[in-house]
Amino acid sequence: MNFAIIGKNIKNSLSPRMHKWIYNSLGLDHYYKAIDINLNNVDNIVNKLKEGALNGINVTIPFKRDFTDYLDGLDEISTYIGAINCIHSHNGLLRGYNTDYYGFKRLLSCNNIELNDKEILVLGAGGASRAICGYLANNNLSFSIFNRTHSNALSIIEQIDYNEKVNIVSNAISNIDYDIIINCLPLSVDIFEQLQSIGYNFKLLDYYLDINYHINTQIDNRIKAQVAIDGLDMLIYQGIQSNEIWLQKSLEQKIDCHKLRNHLLES
Ligand code: ATR
Predict the structure, then answer these.
(1) Is the minimum distance from the CB of 124 to ligand 1 under 6 angstroms?
(2) In this prediction, what percent of the chain has a pLDDT beyond 90?
(3) What gap in Å lies between CA 151 and CA 148, rounded to an integer?
(4) What is the average per-residue pLDDT within 181-189?
(5) ∠ CA(32), CA(37), CA(39), 5° rounding?
(6) Counting atoms of ligand 1 from 1, which one is nearest the CA of 194?
(7) pTM for this one?
(8) How far apart are CA 73 and CA 68, in angstroms?
């Protein structure tokens, strides 16, 4: 079967390397490639899915919300958060899923991160942020969101219908000592500048989590944290769940995630 990641400027994506490793390790004869597209190519990808030339795709920046109108159905999590990152084509029908949610959940569990009673700040209000905010809300946690476009942060809160325990940060940030920052902004954004602009106090964090995974270059050493974790685990577990959806079977127990992680770190 044929799978792909769809996005813009994704030539450095680790996804093809990861999925190829997964298929090799499981002895499966499937293909996975990166397809760089513009907004006006969305139709073309949708047709390939409907015809079965592509059996499933992952969707990344900036298309996580653009495919939604073309789908025949959504799973429970993507309906809840209003964003998909995975599509499965089955008998010509397209169904959307969000596997970032599970990826984030597993990133927390495999790094023994406990979020209860922590002051949490989420940076960004794009597709990945939706999955993470949805996870936090589903677990009844309080958190703040900072995003340059206030209305996009507001739209997440409205979507997940979670008003009481969420605060949208503007310039009052310096009043709160955050314990955890979860960065959902793209690599290209200078997080230090963003935080400085809103008066962040750069207190030592318990955890700095970043959904981006170009390790070493990404985690910003101007932001002090006892533990800094990048998005590699989130990438791995969202990828495994994507395959479970496409191949319609459980795979996680059969995949050596430690070996896969090392393989990705070698790239
Ligand atoms: P993803 O699906 O990975 O979350 P995305 O949906 O494109 O990616 O979301 C990008 C996020 O980065 C958004 O929160 C966006 O802010 P806006 O809601 O204001 O568009 C934020 N972002 C992108 N470029 C930015 C920049 N140059 N400065 C600050 N924020 C930026």
Answers:
(1) yes
(2) 76
(3) 9
(4) 92
(5) 135
(6) 29
(7) 0.95
(8) 9
Q: How far is CA 149 from the centre of its chain?
A: 19
SS3 state of residue 182: strand
pLDDT reading at 220 higher than 60: yes
CA of 125 to the centre of ligand 1 (A): 7
CA distance 128 to 73: 20
149 Cα to the center of ligand 1, angstroms: 9
> d(Cα 211, Cα 183) in Å, to the nearest integer?
6
Which atom, in ligand 1's list, is nearest to the CA of 185? 12
| Residue 171 confidence class, pLDDT cut points 50, 70, 90 | low
- In the chain the first and final C-alpha atoms are separated, in Å, by 25
Q: What is the DSSP string of 46-70?
A: HHHHHHTSSSEEEE-TT-TTTTGGG
Structure tokens at 199: 């008066």
Q: How far is CA 197 from CA 26, 170, 172, in A?
A: 48, 10, 11
Locate the ligand 1 atom nearest the alpha carbon of residue 149 and give its number.
19
Instruction: Compute, in angstroms, the gap from residue 235 CA to the centroid of ligand 1.
Output: 18
66 lines ligand 1 (CB under 6 A): no
Residue nearest to atom 13 of ligand 1 (CA): 126
pLDDT tens for each residue of 75-100: 999 999 999 999 999 999 999 999 99
* Percent of the chain scoring above 70 in pLDDT: 94
